[in-house]
Design brief:
single chain; mainly alpha
């Protein structure tokens, strides 16, 4: 039920259910379910803007992962930490964790997750003013998102690209990606 609320963007309700699961699993803190729930709570806290709580949960999950043989969730933990540190403006840490996440997802051939990391890196570079890295990174995210038909992530890529080209004062490219952003968003809304 928590994941359903999570997927609907109802993060407060998701956190309530996640905490109920954590209580039931309190004797198994190294189980993959417990660790995943900690990561999901951290992500929900992040989406709610409670960055300190998000960081606490992400770090606790990473610590638990480091004490197990199962490293399947480490890339997700790195991604969450990278996004959280970006919002905390701790850009060196953000770069570090996003790089690690991209490497891990590459090893796992997780294309959708790679798109998410590339978009997160594009946002990080945009916030630090490094447009020379932000644009190619986000273009790669958009290309991969288009290839795997990940429209929600493609919307993020197009929005980022529109903003990036606007910062470069390249109005034609900015408008081009804004138009693609709007068309892609409308196509999703029409399906729903």
């Amino acid at each position: 039920i928590g994941i359903d609320y999570h997927n609907m963007g109802q993060y407060e309700k998701a956190i309530d259910y996640y905490n109920q699961v954590l209580k039931r699993l309190s004797k198994e803190p190294f189980s993959s379910t417990f660790i995943l729930i900690k990561l999901n709570i951290g992500f929900a806290e992040y989406k709610l803007g409670r960055i300190a709580d998000a960081l606490k949960n992400h770090l606790e999950a990473l610590d638990l992962i480091s004490k197990t043989d199962n490293k399947s969730m480490i890339a997700y933990a790195y991604l969450n930490l990278g996004m959280t540190y970006t919002d905390l403006k701790e850009f060196d840490k953000a770069r570090h964790y996003l790089r690690l996440s991209l490497e891990e997802y590459g090893k796992q051939d997780q294309k959708h997750a790679r798109v998410q990391v590339l978009n997160a890196q594009g946002r990080l570079y945009m916030l630090t003013g490094d447009l020379a890295q932000a644009i190619p990174c986000t273009l790669e995210a958009a290309e991969l998102a288009k290839k795997i038909n990940a429209k929600k992530d493609l919307i993020i890529s197009y929005d980022l690209l529109s903003n990036l080209y606007n910062q470069k004062r390249n109005i034609n490219e900015s408008y081009k990606y804004f138009k693609l952003f709007s068309e892609t968003k409308d196509s999703i809304n029409n399906i729903q």
